[in-house]
Amino acid sequence: xxxxxYSFLIVLLLSACSPEEDIDVSEEDGTPLIKDVKIPNTIFTxxxxxxxxxxxxxxQSIKVYLDSSEELDNASYPFEEFLWDEDQELHKSExxxxxxxxxxxKENDENFSNYISNxxxxxxxxxxxxxxxxxxxxxxxxxxxxxxxxDNIVDEASDGSFxxxxxxxxxxxxxxxxxxxxxxxxxxxxxxxxxxxxFGRGD
Length: 203
Description:
The chain contains six helices and no strands. About 12% of the residues have low confidence. By secondary structure, it is mostly helical. It is 62% helix and 0% strand. It has one domain. It holds the Pfam family LPAM_1.
């Protein structure tokens, strides 16, 4: 959630800059080097269909989905930091690695969404599992869209033009990705004793 907030703040700051102003986005201390990034080898997968899922399996499924999402998010972050520097370019092997991470993000979201849609979940889990799925999927789409917006702002500003920003699309996703929704998810995780590294809970 903090990452989304800071990315959104950057969009607002960049859009407020005049074309003549220098735009400087620096790497935070402690960000791993791209060469050190390891692609997570686990995402959520399940071939179950029209099955009744018991509570223990459901808890484990949520944990795997959230943990995988967090690991993929952490793996992609150094690439995004690198790409914000307009003087830097990724080599083919690095682009392949980033594309692989993005593909796994999409697969992770789709696999979990299909799992909770096509099976019977334990009592009290359907609504909250759907909330988790919507939140994480929208969060991933939100970050991707913000990164594209930042790229467009920097490109257009460097050409001397003032960029237009599609704030409606960004605002639409904040209806799903916000502190209130995250709070509901974390309350559910605590209630059901689901341990996960997502939302900074593994720090």
